[in-house]
C-alpha cells in the first residue's frame, strides 16, 4: 500500500511540475491572459457590435506577411479580427505594444512551441481560420506580430493606429 501511495504521489508531482514549466517566464496558471484593460485595449464584448477586419497570413518569396499590415481604428472601437492562415506553416497573430511583443518574441525563442489562444493572440495551423474580438480603449500606435521564432524578422508584423 505504501508503494502505491508513493507511486501516485510521484506521478502527481511530475504532472504538477510539468504544468509549472510549460511556459517559461510565466507563473503556473498565469498563461498570457490579458483580461484586464491593457495599454492597447481589452477583450471585446460579444454582445456588442464590432467592425469586421480580415487578416490573411502568408509566405511569399522568402517573406512572411500579414495582409493588410496597417490598420486604423477609433478609440473605443470594437474589432472582430477574422484570421486566415493561407501559408504552408503555422503562424500567429498577437496584438500588443511593440515593446511587449519584442519582449515576448525573446521568450518565444527560448520556448518556440509556446502556443497562444488568448484574448489578444491566436496561433493557426496552415489553412486554418480563427477570430479575435478586441476593443481599442486607448489612443496610440500598437503592434501586431507573429512571434514564432524568425517570423517577425521575416516581415510578419503590422501597425495599428488608434485615434
UniProtKB/TrEMBL annotation:
Residues 57-163 form the Blue (type 1) copper domain. The keyword Metal-binding applies. It comes from the Bacteria. Keywords: Copper, Metal-binding, Signal. SUPFAM superfamilies: Cupredoxins. Pfam families: Copper-bind. Residues 1-22 form the signal peptide. InterPro entries: BlueCu_1, Cu-binding_ET, Cu_oxidase_CS, Cupredoxin. CDD domains: Cupredoxin_like_2 (cd04211). Residues 27-48 have a biased composition (Basic and acidic residues). Residues 25-48 are annotated as: Disordered. This is Cupredoxin family protein.
Amino acid at each position: 500500500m505504501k508503494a502505491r501511495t508513493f507511486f501516485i504521489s510521484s506521478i502527481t508531482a511530475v504532472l504538477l511540475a510539468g504544468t509549472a514549466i510549460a511556459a517559461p517566464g510565466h507563473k503556473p496558471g498565469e498563461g498570457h491572459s490579458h483580461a484586464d484593460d491593457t495599454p492597447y485595449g481589452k477583450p471585446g464584448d460579444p454582445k456588442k457590435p464590432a467592425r469586421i477586419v480580415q487578416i490573411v497570413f502568408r509566405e511569399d518569396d522568402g517573406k512572411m506577411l500579414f495582409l493588410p499590415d496597417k490598420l486604423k481604428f477609433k478609440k473605443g472601437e470594437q474589432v472582430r479580427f477574422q484570421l486566415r492562415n493561407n501559408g504552408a506553416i503555422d503562424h500567429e497573430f498577437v496584438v500588443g505594444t511593440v515593446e511587449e511583443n519584442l519582449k515576448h518574441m525573446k521568450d518565444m525563442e527560448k520556448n518556440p512551441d509556446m502556443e497562444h489562444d488568448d484574448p489578444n493572440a491566436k496561433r493557426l495551423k496552415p489553412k486554418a481560420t480563427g477570430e479575435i474580438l478586441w476593443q481599442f480603449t486607448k489612443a496610440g500606435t500598437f503592434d501586431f506580430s507573429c512571434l514564432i521564432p524568425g517570423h517577425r524578422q521575416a516581415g510578419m508584423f503590422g501597425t495599428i493606429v488608434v485615434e
